[in-house]
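Tutorial, part two.
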Amino acid sequence: MRRYFDHLILCLGCLIMVGPVLGLMGQVLSDPDLSRQIRAMFSADLTLGYHIDLWQMLGNSLVLALGVAAVACVLSLLAAFALVFFPLPGREWLFGVILMAMFFPIETRILPSFAVVHQLGLSNTHAGMTLPVVASGLGVLVFRQFLKQIPKELIEAARLDGARPLRCLWDILLPMSAPMVAALFSIFFVLGWNQYVWPLMLSTTRQDMVTVVSGVTRAGAGSTEGQILALLALLPPGLVMVISQRWLMRGLTSGIH
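Running the prediction step on this input gives:
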């Protein structure tokens, strides 16, 4: 009975999570003008008070999500490698400062971030849209915990053979960290794809910088176009999580020990 009760809880949880998506699909499919709307959205300009191409919105979202995932994984791995294998003065304090970024997401520092991006001349650019979102201590935390488990003798043997630090990172540590890289890449991809406030604020003067998520609000959440955009916004992160779920569990559990 306990096993059946556990499965019942899991089924109810799945129903609660999938219920809104199924409801959205039902609303979209019940629209008699659905096929015409979809053809218009994919073949012509989508009118959201102005003309913007749907493929351009999808491209902006992909650039943001892939940029956040790639840059965050690279910087997190390099920072964790330096904190673990280099005798940096006060590295525990540095690690604590890096972790503070986890408590200040982009929504809590949006005004100073906008000021810095504007001073750097990155307003209305993909770089300005991506870089402030990358500031997160999650990747450094997971990579550091994993690298601390690797025997120091392995790195010392490679150094005795003449391998430099970056060679050790590329040939030894990176292949061993592949499951964790895949797990964190999927998490950061979803984080970048779901950004709403920051891209909306940064693309005030360039309408071609609109992402799919921010386009839902501009189209109107109750309109057919907004519902189709909301459904499209669910597909890429859902697909990434389904593909990477095996790496996700193995990578994070091995890194948090």
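The longest helix spans residues 54-85. In part three we will examine how such features are distributed along the chain.
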